[in-house]
Specification:
Elements: E1 6-9, H1 15-27, E2 32-35, H2 45-53, E3 59-62, E4 65-66, H3 72-85, E5 90-95, H4 101-104, H5 112-127, E6 132-135, E7 140-144, E8 160-164, H6 167-176, E9 179-182, H7 188-205, E10 215-222, H8 226-243, H9 245-250, H10 255-264, H11 271-278, H12 283-289, E11 291-293, H13 295-307, E12 312-318, H14 321-327
Helix pairs in contact: 2-3, 3-5, 5-6, 6-7, 8-10, 8-11, 8-12
Length: 333
């Protein structure tokens, strides 16, 4: 049996190029495309609509939208609209964003678990065609519904996934979400701990691990020359060593390396700083945090994540996108 795969797109390519990649991924049997929305560069829903317009089968996920900057009613209306375009193919992925970006736009990320719970609860009810009154710490709705005028009133099949990195958010995902989007630039060993905490949430809701989908972002650098593939991934790994040292430490990166990289990088880091810091990052760290190398080596590494709990790798391509799609078309973990 082949292992499902998904494509991850950020803003490295034009949306029209992305449309071509997604069409190709669908032709090659990919299960889904996830559009990033982590920085203030490209939001997810416009590209997802473009991808939905040129495909027939592939699922369309926001990977992930933040739970703070859109009112829950507008969030539900937006993803209901995407479902109008691609019925039954849309997935709402939500995350808790990150600082300093959130703080720079005036959002205080206080009590993210509470906010995520409230947003998921309210948005799900609205998508289920319910009239919602909700007065929480963050969400305030008073008799709100998706007030369709010309279309049939019915629940929308839009599952909600939580993008979780911290263990408490992992537990919340297990308790209330239809799926969890596992983060990238972590090691398969990190997944073992994540699955333990996901199970805590599942136990709280009386569900089984099979009840929750577990796709995972995986940075994938594929080239026939392993050295070229590792070098393509090294710059990205370096940035995350500086930006997310707590995650890197949890994945087994030595603290001495994190400290050395942190001494070079500022926020936001310049290209020159990243380039200088990347010289400190050894190949074994790049291999630990990414699926980089020849097609065979990349497939083997992605298989490690699948065996550690991932149900569908969301492949973040560095380099030739179509070559990476070809490398994972019809593969088996």
């Amino acid at each position: 049996m082949t292992t499902p795969s998904a494509l991850y797109l950020q803003d490295a390519h034009s949306i029209r190029e992305g449309m071509d990649f997604v069409r190709y991924a669908e032709q090659r049997g990919f299960d889904a495309v996830w559009q990033a929305e982590s920085r203030l560069v490209r939001e997810a829903t416009v590209p997802l609509a473009a991808y939905g317009a040129v495909t027939e089968r592939i699922r369309l996920g926001s990977g992930v939208s933040d739970c703070w900057s859109r009112n829950p009613a507008r969030l539900a209306a937006t993803f209901s609209t995407l479902d109008d375009l691609a019925p039954g193919r849309v997935v709402l992925g939500l995350g808790a964003w990150w600082d300093p970006l959130a703080a720079k736009v005036g959002i205080t990320r206080a009590r993210p678990l509470t906010v995520m719970r409230e947003v998921v609860t309210a948005v799900r009810a609205l998508l289920n065609n319910e009239t919602v009154t909700f007065h929480g710490e963050w969400v305030h709705l008073d008799g709100v519904e998706l007030d369709y005028v010309y279309q049939e009133r019915k629940p929308k099949n839009v599952p909600i996934y939580i993008g979780a990195t911290g263990m408490k958010m992992m537990e919340l995902a297990g308790e209330i979400a239809d799926g969890v989007v596992l983060n990238y630039l972590v090691s398969p060993d990190y997944n073992q701990r994540a699955m333990h905490h996901l199970q805590i949430g599942l136990d709280a809701s009386g569900r089984r691990i099979q009840d929750v989908d577990r796709p995972q972002l995986v940075v994938c650098s594929v080239h026939e020359d392993e050295t070229v593939a590792l070098d393509m991934a090294r710059m990205m790994v370096t940035q995350y060593l500086g930006q997310q040292p707590h995650i890197m430490a949890a994945s087994g990166v030595p603290q001495s390396l994190l400290d050395a990289v942190g001494e070079i990088l500022t926020w936001p880091a310049t290209h020159e700083q990243v380039e200088a810091a990347s010289r400190l990052v050894p190949d074994d760290v790049v291999r630990m945090l990414t699926a980089s190398g020849t097609p065979e080596q990349a497939r083997k590494r992605v298989g490690d994540y699948v065996r550690a709990g991932c149900t569908c790798p969301i492949l973040y391509p560095l380099g030739d996108v179509k070559a990476m799609i070809d490398a994972f078309s019809g593969w088996t973990a």
